[in-house]
């Protein structure tokens, strides 16, 4: 039996470069009734812990270091006592919010197994230097954080981001996935690789 995908939406703010914006974030739970992987613990640690329930948490994964994707990690970890992974290229973003270092470097190619399903880390810099997606071939799914959205690439107008880099990452590392792959984004609606083929410059 393969894992199932659950979405939890939380609301809060994103702050960078002196500005603050209201945002709704997608938190993705991948697993079954017994164990689960948490992707992007945002805004509301209590709701995330409630959604996990009594399941064993394989780990807490951050697709990148923007505060709206990691600001509930500390609260969740304090309760669940499980390790955190984030790509080390986003250390400066992580350290803007937390004094302690994350538990593990989310390196390209790292694999996580939950409920008999494997998710593979795919480094996709551009939105931030350490932005990393998680591809689950058995689920025909990729979790893209803020790298790829319904309608095109994530934003690149702020510090540590670069448009040519994100476009290269999407073309070479995401659009090469099977076209039927469902794209589970960091904000907003899901999409597919096929639907986004025409939305990348």
TrEMBL record:
It holds the Pfam family Lactamase_B. InterPro entries: MBL_Glyoxalase_II, Metallo-B-lactamas, RibonucZ/Hydroxyglut_hydro. It comes from the Bacteria. Gene3D superfamilies: Ribonuclease Z/Hydroxyacylglutathione hydrolase-like. Residues 24-187 form the Metallo-beta-lactamase domain. SUPFAM superfamilies: Metallo-hydrolase/oxidoreductase. This is MBL fold metallo-hydrolase. It comes from Kribbella lupini. The lineage of its organism: Bacteria, Bacillati, Actinomycetota, Actinomycetes, Propionibacteriales.
């Amino acid at each position: 039996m393969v894992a199932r995908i659950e979405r939890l939406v939380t609301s809060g703010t994103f702050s960078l470069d002196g500005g603050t914006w209201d945002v709704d974030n997608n938190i993705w739970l991948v697993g079954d009734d017994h164990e689960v992987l948490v992707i992007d613990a945002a805004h509301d640690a209590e709701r995330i812990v409630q959604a996990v329930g009594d399941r064993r948490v394989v780990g807490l994964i951050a697709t990148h270091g923007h505060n709206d994707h990691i600001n509930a990690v500390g609260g969740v970890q304090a309760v669940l006592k499980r390790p955190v992974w984030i790509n080390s290229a986003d250390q400066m973003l992580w350290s803007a919010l937390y004094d302690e270092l994350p538990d593990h470097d989310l390196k390209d190619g790292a694999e996580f197994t939950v409920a008999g399903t494997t998710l593979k880390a795919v480094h996709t810099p551009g939105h931030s230097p350490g932005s990393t997606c998680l591809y689950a071939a058995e689920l025909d799914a990729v979790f893209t954080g803020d790298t790829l959205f319904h309608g095109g690439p994530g934003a690149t107008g702020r510090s540590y981001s670069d448009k040519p880099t994100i476009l290269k990452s999407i073309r070479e590392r995401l659009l090469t996935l099977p076209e039927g792959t469902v794209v589970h984004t960091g904000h907003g609606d899901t999409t597919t690789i096929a639907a986004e083929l025409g939305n990348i410059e």
